[in-house]
Amino acid sequence: MSGHESTYVPKTGVEKWLDTRLPIVRFGADYLALPTPKNLNYWYTFGAILSICLVTQIATGIFLAMHYQPNTAMAFASVERIMRDVNGGWLIRYVHANGASMFFVAVYIHMLRGLYYGSYKAPREMIWILGCIIFFLMIATAFLGYVLPWGQMSYWGAEVITNLIGAIPLIGEPVLIWLRGGPAIDNATLNRFFSLHYLLPFVIFGVVVLHLWALHTAGQNNPVGILIPKEREKKDMVPFHPYYTVKDGFALLIFLMMFSWFVFFMPNALGHADNYIPANPLVTPAHIVPEWYMLPFYAILRAVPDKFGGVVAMFGAIGVLFILPWLDTSKVRSMRYRPTMKIFYMLFVLNGLILGWCGGQLPDAQVVPGMPSFTLIDGQLNSYLWLTRLATLYYFAFFFVILPFVGLRETPLKIPASISEPVLSGPDAMSGAVPAQAEKKG
C-alpha cells in the first residue's frame, strides 16, 4: 500500500496550477483510490467514526469557549447561561458533553478490534503507538473538560487527581504547584485547565494526521491477518471509494442515531447529578467518581493500598499498551486463528467491564455478599476491594504473562493463503492454506 502510485490526472487549468504548487486535490483523489483489503468488516469503520467525533468535539468546543468564563465565581453560572440564554446553547453543550462519551465508546471498540486482529504487529507498531498517544491525550483532555463546569464533582475530581500527582517522589510537589497555579485549586487552576482543554484537541488532531500517515505507509491490516503481496492486490483489494466510503457512511449513520438518542432523550444519563450543584470546597460529596470511561483506571488506582503505588498502577495500565507489540510472541496476527488466545481475550473484555463497574462503587461497598475478603474497612469486610484487586491482577497478567506465554505454547489454526480464495473457491480452498507457524513475522 505504501507503494501505491498516483492515478490522479488534473483536468482543468486551475487543477494543474494547484497540483504543481499544493497537490491537495491529488492527495484526496489518491486517498479515495487507495487499495484496501476487500474483507474488512464493520469493526473497521470506527476509524472514520472517530474522525467525525474529533471534528465534532473541536467545533462544539470552539462555540462553547466563546461563552464560557474560566473563573471560579462565574464558571458554573456561565455554563447555565449557555444552556438557557445562548441560542442553541443547550444543543451545543449536550453534543459536546455526550460527544466525549461517544468518542470513548468508539475508541475503546477501535482499540479492542486492533487487539483482536493483531493490528499492532510488525510493520504496524508505529500506528499502534501513535494510537496509544491519542488515547492518553484523550484521557487528559476529558479530565480537564470534566473540571470546567465547576460543579461539585468537577471540583473534587480535580482535588483528588491533582493530589495524586503530588504523590510522585521528588517532582510531584513542583508539578502539582505548577498545575494548580498555587497551593490550592482556585482561579489559576481553572484558567490552566481551560487553556489546556482548548489546546489538546488540536494536538490530538496533529497526532491523528501522523496516525493516518503511518497507516498509509505500513498498510491496512485485515481480519485474516495476512500480508497481501503486490501480485495479489487486484484480487484481494478494492478501491477505498466507493466500497468503504459507503460502508463507513452507513456505520456512521447508525452511530449518529445512537448519539442523537442520548443528546435529545437522555442528555444527562452519562453524567453525574452532583455536577449540577455548584462547587463547594467545604462540602465533600459522598462518593467522588470520574466519568464512566475512566472508571476502569480509577478502580486500578484504588486497588493498591499505597497512594504512590496506586498512581504507578494506574499510569502503568495505560503505559503497558505502548509496549504491547513486543509482549505478544505469537507469529499469527488475527485471533480468529488462535482459539486459546481468543478465550483469554474474551475474559479480558469481561474483566474491563468488571473494573469499570468496580470503579463506580463506594470504597466501602458490600456489593458481593458471601464473597471472601482480604481487607477490613471500619471493621467490615470489603468484598468489592477483593474483586477490584483480582480484576487488576488479571489486567496486568494478560499483558505480561498470558500474551507472551500463550503465544509461545498454543497451536494456531491454519491461515488461508489469501483473502479471496476461501470465499471464491469454497472449503477446498483451505487446502492451499499455510500453517500458522510458517507465516513470516511482520
TrEMBL record:
InterPro entries: Cyt_b/b6_C, Cyt_b/b6_C_sf, Cyt_b/b6_N, Cytb/b6-like_sf, Cytochrome_b, Cytochrome_b_C_euk/bac, Cytochrome_b_N_euk/bac, Di-haem_cyt_TM. GO terms for biological process: respiratory electron transport chain. It is a multi-pass membrane protein. The chain crosses the membrane at residues 42-66, 94-115, 127-148, 160-181, 193-214, 250-270, 307-327, 343-363, 383-406. Residues 14-224 form the Cytochrome b/b6 N-terminal region profile domain. It holds the Pfam family Cytochrome_B. Its cofactor is heme; heme b. Residues 230-417 form the Cytochrome b/b6 C-terminal region profile domain. A ubiquinone binds at residue 216. The keyword Transmembrane helix applies. Heme b b562 binds at residues 96, 197. GO terms for cellular component: respiratory chain complex III. The keyword Transmembrane applies. Binds 2 heme groups non-covalently. It is found in: Membrane. It comes from the Bacteria. Component of the ubiquinol-cytochrome c reductase complex (complex III or cytochrome b-c1 complex), which is a respiratory chain that generates an electrochemical potential coupled to ATP synthesis. Belongs to the cytochrome b family. This is Cytochrome b.
